Fold these 3 entries.
Entry 1:
Amino acid sequence: MDLLSQIFVEPFALMVEMPDLLVQTLWEGFVSGVLYALIALGFVLIFKASGVFNFAQGIMVVFSALTLVGFYAMGVPAILALVLAIGVMFVLAWTVERVVLRPLVNQPDIILFMATFGLTYFLIGFGELVFGGEPKQMITDELFLPTGATEFDLGGGYVRIQHLDVAAAVIASIMIAVLGVFFSKTRIGRALRAVADSHKAALSVGISLNQIWVIVWFAAGVVALVTGIMWGARSDVSFALQIIALKALPVLILGGFTSIPGAIVGGLIIGLGEKIGEFYWGPVVGGGIETWFAYVIALIFLLFRPQGLFGEKIIERV
C-alpha cells in the first residue's frame, strides 16, 4: 500500500502543496523539450530529403560548436567567428553532397545510413585532431547571450528562471517556426517532399538532387550550430554533447520522422515527461529517470503506433 501511495498519491499531493516546485519543473522541462525539438528538426530535414536517419547529426552539433569556439580562440571576433562557423557548415554540406551522397543516388537506404556512420567517425577523428578532446567553454557573453536569473514568489516559494534558458527557448522556437514555414510553403520545400517520395521521380521532373541535398544539409548544419551553442552555454562544449543529440531519436519516434510539428510535440513530451518523472517519481525508483524515460516512451509508441503521432502510414501492396 505504501508503494501505491508513493506512486499514485504523494507526487500529486506534492504538486498541489508546492506549486512553485511544479512550475519550476515544468519550465525546465519546457526548455529541454524545445531544445530536443530543435535537435530533432535537423534529423527531420535530412530524413525528408533522403529517407535516411542521419546518424551524424549528433556529432555535427559538437563539431559546429567546436568550430565556433575554435575560431574565437584563434583571435577572431565572436560575431565573425559565428559567420565563419556557418560558412564551415556550408562547406561541410557541399562536401557531403559531392563525396558521400552523389555517388550513392538511388542506392538502398541502408547504404546511405551506413554512410552517415562513416561521416560520424570521420568528424569525431577530425574534430579531435583539430580541436583536441578536452571540453571547451562556450563564448556565451561574447555572443551577447543573457546571463543571470530572475526569481519570483509563487505559493510561498520561489521560481528561478535562468535568462539563458529564456533566450534558448525563444531562439529555438523562432528557428523551428522559420524552417517549418520555409520547407512547407516554399518551392524548395515542395521539391524536398518530391525528393523524399522518390529520387527517380524528382529527377524526371527536373529537380536537382544535388542542390536540394546541399540546402538541406546546410540547414541541418545551421540547426546543429544553434543547438551546440545553446547546449554548450548550459554546460560545456565537448564530444559528450552527441549523446544528448541522440535524444532526438525517441522524439522522432513520438512525433514521426517526416513531421516538423511532430518534432515539436515529441520534444515537449520528452522534455516535460522526463523532468516531471525525475522529480516526482524519481525517489520511488532510485532516480535516473531522465536517462531512460525517453526510450521507454519510444518503445511503447513503436509497439502501438510505429509511425508516430504525426507520421504518415505506409501502406504496401503485396
Note: The chain has one domain: 2-304.
Entry 2:
Amino acid sequence: MNPKPTIKGRGAQLNVHNKFFELSHEIRDDFLEYCAREGEEADKNKTLYLPVFPKTIVNKVESPDVGMAFSMNMYQGCEHGCIYCYARNSHEFWGYSAGLDFERRILVKKDAPKLLEALLKKKSWKAHPIVMSGNTDCYQPAEKEFELTKQCLEVFLKYKHPVAIITKNALILRDLELLKALAKDNLINVNISITSLSETTRRVLEPRTATIKKRLETLKVLSQNNIPVNVMLAPIIPSINSHEILPLAKAVSDAGALSIAHTIVRLNGAIGEIFADWIKKTLPDRADKVLHQIESCHGGNLNDSRYGTRMRGEGKIAEQINMLVRLARKKYFKDKAMPKLNTELHEQYKDGQLKLF
C-alpha cells in the first residue's frame, strides 16, 4: 500500500454539497490555474474554531442499536478527520459540508459545563449514564485549548453522576486524576477506538488521531488505574482492516481492555461520496474492491439505515467478520466484563454535596 492523499493531514479530500442548500460551491480549474500563476494559495487548509450557544447540551438517543440513551458533545465537527465517520452528516445541520468543513470548521459549545450542571440539578432529572462523544470526539485537538471535557468531568464528579467517554486521543490521560476519582464510585467507563495495528492504515483512515502506540499505552495506563476500558474495533472495513480482528483483540486484551465492540462500516448520506472520492485518490489499487465488498455487506448499497442490520451488515463477508469478533471474544475476553455504572449516588448529591437528611 502506497497511500497518497492529495490534501495532507485531512481525511476528506473535497467538500461535498450540503443537501439542505439550493446553491452549491465549487473550486474550478481556471481558479486553481490563476492561483498558481499568482503564487497564491487556493485553500490554506486551516482549522477554525467557531463558538456556538445551544440551549441544551444533553441529547436523548432514540436509536435502538447504538448502546446509549443520552449523549453530549462539546464540539461539533472533528479535526481528527476520520474518513468513515458517521458524524460527518450532522455537520450539514449547521450549514456546513460533511467533507472538509467537518474537519476544519469546529463548533465550540463554551457553555457546555454550565448547561450540564443545570440539567443535573433539576429535580426531574434521574441519573442515567451520559456518553461524552456520542457524535464527535471530546478529546479532539480543540480540547487542548478549551478544556470543556475536563470541566464537564468536574461537574460529573461534583454531582456523583455516571459518565462514559468515547475517544481515540491520548489527551484523555491529562484528566487521569479526575477519572480515578470517578472510578472510585464506579461512575466512569472509557471506550477507546482502535481500528488497526498499522500506522500506515491509521494515518490514511484517521489522519489527526493519536498513534496506535499511544492508544495502546493509554489503554494500559487507564487499566492500571482501575478505570474500566472497552475497545471499539470500529468500523471494520473489508480489505482494509478486516484481517486484523484477531491480532487487534489480542493486543487490546493484553493491554488491559475488559471487552471489545465492533461495527461494520456503513457510508450513509454524504459519507458515501466522500469515502469513494477518498479511496480512489488514496488507495486506487484497491478502491473498487473495497467499495464492492462494503456494498455486499449492505444489500448492494454503501448506504444502510435499517435498525438491526446497519451495524452488523449481512451477507457472507459480514458473516465472516461477525464470526471473527465472536471468536476473538471467546479467545481473549472469556473471563472479562465491563462493570455497570453506578446510578445510585447522584440523588444524594443533587446540590453538589452529600445530603445528610
Note: The chain has one domain: 31-334.
Entry 3:
Amino acid sequence: MERINSTLLTEFILTGIPYPPQLRTFLFGFFLLIYILTQLGNLLILITVCVDPQLHARPMYIFLGILSIIDMGIPSIVVPRLMMNFTLGFKPIPYGGCVAQLYFYHFLGSTQCFLYTLMAYDRYLAICRPLHYPMLMNAKLSTLLVAGAWAAGSMHGALQAILTFHLPYCGPNQVDYFFCDIPAVLRLACADTSVNELVTFVDIGVVVASCFSLILLSYIQIIQAILRIRTADGRRRAFSTCGAHVTMVTMYYVPCAFIYLRPETNSPLDGAAALFPTAITPFLNPLIYTLRNQEVKLALKRMIGGTGTKSEV
C-alpha cells in the first residue's frame, strides 16, 4: 500500500523561508533585483572574457567564463521558486520539477567545487612555476579540465537525485525549505533514510574535503612564493590576483559544509546558510572579480570603448 500511495504523489509544496508578512513585497523586490543583477553581472563577465583577445585564450579567464555560466545557472534554478514564496497562495512544484531542481543544483554546485580547485591549481602554476606555466596549463588542457569538471559534476548530481527519489514518498508533501534539497526532501520519505544520509555525507564530504584540501595546499604554496617576491608591487599584484578567488572559495565552502557536513538537524540557520551558494555568492562574484582584478577592469573599458588602452596593460 505504501508503494501505491507513493506513486500517487505528483507534487511538493515548498514552504520557503520564514518572513514577516509586512515584508512580502520588499523581499520579492529584493530577490528580483538580486537575480537580475546576478544575471547581468555574470553575463557581462562572460561576454568580456569571450570577446577580449587578451583574455579568452588564457586558462584563468576560461575558468572565469565557466564560473559565470554556473553563477547564472544556480540562481535560475532556485531564486524564481524562492520568489514565489513571497506571493499569496501555495505554489506547488511538480514531482519531476523537484527531481530536476535537486539534480541541477547538485550538478552545478559540485562542478563549481571542481572549478574552484582548477582555478587554485592554475594560480599555483602561474605564481610558483611561471617559466613552465605555458606548457603545463594551456587553453587546450584547461578546456579538457573544464569538460572533466562538468562530467564529474553531472555524475554527482545524478547519483544524489537517484538516491533521493528512488525512495517512496507517500505524504505529507510539504518540504520545509525554499527549494528541493536532499536533507529537506529526505525528511518526507516513507522509508529508512539512513543509507541515503550516509552516502550523501560521504559523497558530498569527499567532494568538499578533497577540493578544499587541494585549494588549501595550493594556496600554502602560493603564499610562500609570494612572500619570496622582493618588490612590494609584485607582492601586491600577486595577492590581488589570488584574493578574489580566496574570497569566493570561503563564501562558498563554509555554508556548504554547515549544511551538509554536520549531524541532521532542522535548524532555521540552514535556510540562511543556503542563501549564500544559491543567491548571494553568484551575485557577488562579478563584483569581486571586477573590483579586484585589474585585467578584467581594463578589458571592460576596452569593450565599452573607454579609456583603457593597450599602454595601460
Note: Residues 95-128 form the longest helix (34 residues).
